[in-house]
């Protein structure tokens, strides 16, 4: 497995249709479904907390679809780009922005109330239509009532148009541009910068750092921070005085805490721009304020745990393969494997699976 990490969401169901060559490859892969498969990649389905292992054929097909989608998304002409996305059904999965989307909640509720009342009155007008052809007072009353309803509907339309105009003004004041019926935000460069910031923060978190336990040996940042805090707390509460604590311990805590805070901030920044990182997807965020940061830290820990288990799995597979090769070489392949040969590896495998 190459350790890549990919997202797959509901849009995948509407991805570009497979070519005949792709279908042939999928059929060829399915024909060997009973044979042992080699997993080469993994994807995560946001919102499901589910990972899927991929064979080489399936991974290649998804990557090709991903590249095709990227090409269409990079199309500079707005109408051409939207047409591509409409053709493959992706736009059906998105909630298009409307003028009322930019109104306050109270104004949105007011707009919806006006719309509901308009629909009710239009239905009432339609129901009166058969009566307008009748003679006498009943027909006259129906005509008068339809005229009253028409005036009322016109008034409702006027109020709705006023709210829509207000929504467009708010959108423009916030940097949105209007092309046809579509609104475009000004955050392309901001998103690009946020992604790069996240990449750099993530890289720093993956590095090893010194701790109070050993300034010469590197540890994963979480472990280094945790151990340094433990040593510092113990030192400050142990006589004769906290002055015996090395002066660089608080500095280590501050530096590592700043790195983790920047990492969490980069995840939150992308989330506010509508981009869910793996950490955010695993965070199961439901709270606000400080609780959101705690959830993000939990998601980041889950992401780190996943990669730790992935690394342990790869090392275990390599160990088993090496030991198996040594056994076959030493016995010329003429002896059966003893039960105890992989006993330790079996325990390690069970421990990994239990996590």
Q: SSE layout and pairings?
A:
Elements lengths: L5 E2 L12 H12 L7 E7 L4 E6 H18 L4 H10 L17 H24 L7 H38 L3 E3 L2 E3 L3 H19 L1 E2 L9 E2 H16 L11 H25 L5 H4 L8 H42 L11 H12 L1
Parallel strand pairs: 1-2
Antiparallel strand pairs: 2-3, 4-5, 6-7
Helix pairs in contact: 4-5, 6-8, 7-8, 10-11
Average pLDDT figure: 78
Give the beta-strand count: 7
- Level of helix content? 55-70%
Order of helices and strands: EHEEHHHHEEHEEHHHHH
Question: Quaternary state, please?
Answer: single chain
Structural class: mainly alpha
Separation of the first and last Cα atoms = 19 Å
How many domains comprise the coordinates? Answer: 3
Radius of gyration: 31 Å
Low-confidence stretches: 1-18
Number of helices: 11
- Main β-sheet: number of strands, strand sense, barrel status? 3 strands, mixed
Strand content: 5-15%
Brief summary of the model shown:
Residues 118-139 are annotated as: Disordered. This protein has 355 residues and is mainly alpha-helical.
Q: Could you characterize what this model shows?
A:
The chain has 355 residues and is mainly alpha-helical. The protein has three domains: 88 residues, no CATH class; 77 residues; 88 residues. It is 62% helix and 7% strand. It has eleven helices and seven strands. The strands form three sheets. Strands 1-2-3 form a three-stranded mixed β-sheet. It has a two-stranded antiparallel ribbon with strand order 4-5. A two-stranded antiparallel sheet has the order 6-7. The radius of gyration is 31 Å and the shape is elongated.
């Amino acid at each position: 497995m190459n350790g890549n990490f990919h997202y797959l969401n509901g849009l995948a169901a509407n991805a570009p249709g497979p070519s005949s060559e792709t279908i042939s490859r999928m059929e060829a892969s399915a024909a060997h479904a009973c044979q042992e498969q080699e997993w080469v990649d993994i994807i995560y389905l946001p919102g499901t907390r589910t990972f899927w292992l991929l064979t080489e054929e399936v991974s290649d097909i998804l990557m090709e679809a991903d590249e095709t989608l990227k090409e269409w998304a990079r199309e500079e002409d707005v109408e051409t780009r939207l047409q591509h996305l409409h053709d493959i059904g992706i736009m059906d999965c998105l909630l298009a922005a409307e003028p009322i989307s930019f109104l306050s909640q109270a104004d949105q509720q007011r707009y919806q109330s006006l719309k509901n009342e308009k629909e009710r009155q239009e239905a009432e007008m339609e129901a009166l239509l058969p009566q307008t052809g009748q003679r006498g007072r009943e027909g006259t009353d129906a005509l008068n009532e339809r005229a009253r309803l028409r005036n009322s509907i016109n008034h409702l339309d006027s109020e709705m148009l006023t709210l829509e105009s207000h929504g467009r003004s708010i959108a423009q004041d916030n940097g949105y541009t209007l092309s046809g019926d579509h609104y475009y935000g000004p955050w392309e460069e901001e998103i690009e910068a946020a992604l790069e910031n996240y990449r750099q923060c993530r890289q720093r978190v993956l590095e090893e750092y010194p701790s109070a336990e050993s300034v010469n040996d590197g540890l994963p940042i979480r472990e280094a921070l945790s151990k340094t805090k433990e040593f510092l707390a113990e030192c400050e509460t142990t006589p004769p005085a906290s002055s015996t604590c090395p002066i660089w311990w608080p500095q280590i805590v501050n530096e590592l805490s700043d790195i983790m805070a920047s990492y969490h901030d980069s995840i939150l920044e992308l989330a506010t721009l509508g981009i869910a990182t793996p950490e955010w997807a695993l965070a199961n965020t439901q709270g606000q304020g400080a609780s959101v940061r705690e959830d993000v830290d939990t998601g980041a820990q889950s992401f780190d745990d996943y990669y730790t288990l992935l690394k342990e799995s790869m090392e275990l597979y390599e160990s088993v393969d090496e030991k198996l090769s040594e056994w076959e070489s030493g016995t010329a392949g003429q002896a059966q494997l003893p039960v105890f040969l992989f006993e330790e590896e079996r325990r390690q495998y069970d421990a990994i699976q239990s996590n």
